[in-house]
Write a structure and sequence with these properties.
The protein is of the alpha/beta class and 333 residues long. Helix 5 packs across helix 6. The protein is globular. Helix content is 45%, strand content 18%. It starts with a helix and ends with a helix.
Length: 333
């Protein structure tokens, strides 16, 4: 059983409802059909039933619930809710109604807010900024969370690094999609959130490495100082978390290199959660591993929202969407 199949099995034991709004995209409809066939989540599709049927090219979507905002009585109550949530930011009833009728992202998130769905997956044809804007405006952040960030669950074939599952190495890469140049405080919160997400998805103990171009003072730079300050913050907030830094990538995941460069570190050579110092490094890093090592890259999985609203890469396949649906269902447990 592949690791993503293991996640599906966990989700199947307590089936959740996931809303998909990009119903004019065939990949989304194919993912919905396969998800319903496998039975690990219920699916709500947002859109016009006739248009969905036309786009589906014969896919079996009979078990999906289809809600068309243009004919739904929910728009009235959701527009009132939106004004209640965002009136102080200038949201009016007319603006709210227009968004709910014409931008499926907002209607989908409203379904999650209303607990008619447990989570939403989008981003196959929408930008990350648009997906998260809708989520933040209606769902908001989880209690005690200071920053919303993202992670990729990387499943690397024929790999001995990270958490070992069958012949694969499983690691969390963060943040690869949202925060361009995190401050020390933000980097610390990314590390904390990622450690929790890793455990939620894998059941394993996180071993967190704060990455840098330096290991234990082999170079000096203000960017290294940022990483060290983040480490200090995490140790104050979560003293029992296994975390270390600053570590170069090879020192973080290769046991022999970790022993050589940071012999006193319990994390060096054993990390399974990799925290990149900025978005450039994280985004380039995950795509290198995805393309060169032929890794499965699931995400960006959003961390820190009150309910799971997860983004997709616009280059995603239907199988990527299915994996993200399973992850979202597991987050909603």
């Amino acid at each position: 059983m592949s690791f993503i199949e293991k996640i599906k099995e966990k989700a199947k034991n307590n089936k959740k409802t996931i809303v998909l709004v990009e119903t004019n995209d065939f990949r989304t409809l194919e993912a919905a059909s396969k998800t319903l066939q496998e039975g690990f989540a219920n699916i709500i599709l947002v859109g016009d039933q006739d248009e969905i049927k036309s786009k589906s090219n014969g896919l079996d979507l009979s078990k999906a619930e289809i809600i068309n905002p243009k004919t739904s009585q929910l728009v009235e109550s959701y527009s009132n809710l939106f004004v209640e949530l965002r009136g102080h930011k200038g949201m009016t009833k007319d603006k709210a109604t227009d968004l709910l009728l014409n931008d499926p992202l907002y209607f989908g998130v409203a379904l999650v807010k209303d607990s008619k769905a447990d989570g939403m997956v989008a981003g196959a044809i929408n930008s990350t900024a648009n997906v998260l804007r809708a989520g933040l405006q209606i769902i908001g952040t989880a209690k005690d969370v200071k920053v919303v960030s993202s992670m990729f669950l990387m499943i690397v074939p024929n790999c001995d690094f990270g958490f070992k599952y069958e012949n694969s190495g499983i690691l969390c890469f963060s943040d690869c999609a949202l925060i361009q140049d995190p401050s020390s405080q933000e980097l610390a919160q990314i590390a904390i959130s990622s450690s929790k997400t890793f455990t939620q998805l894998t059941g394993e103990i996180p071993k967190v490495a704060l990455l840098s171009h330096s290991t234990y003072g082999s170079a000096s730079h203000s960017k290294i100082d940022k990483v060290l300050e983040a480490l200090k913050i995490v140790k104050q907030e979560m003293p029992n978390l296994d975390i270390d830094g600053e570590l170069q990538l090879d020192a973080a995941i290769v046991p022999s290199v970790g022993k050589s460069k940071a012999p006193d570190s319990a994390i060096a050579g054993n990390a399974n959660v990799l925290i990149f110092p900025d978005l450039d490094a994280g985004n380039i890093g995950y795509k290198l591993v995805q393309r060169l090592a032929k890794a499965e890259a699931y995400g960006p999985v959003t961390q820190g929202m009150a309910k799971p609203i997860n983004d997709l890469s616009r280059g995603c396949s239907s199988d990527d969407i299915i994996g993200t649906i399973a992850i979202t269902a597991l987050q909603a447990l």
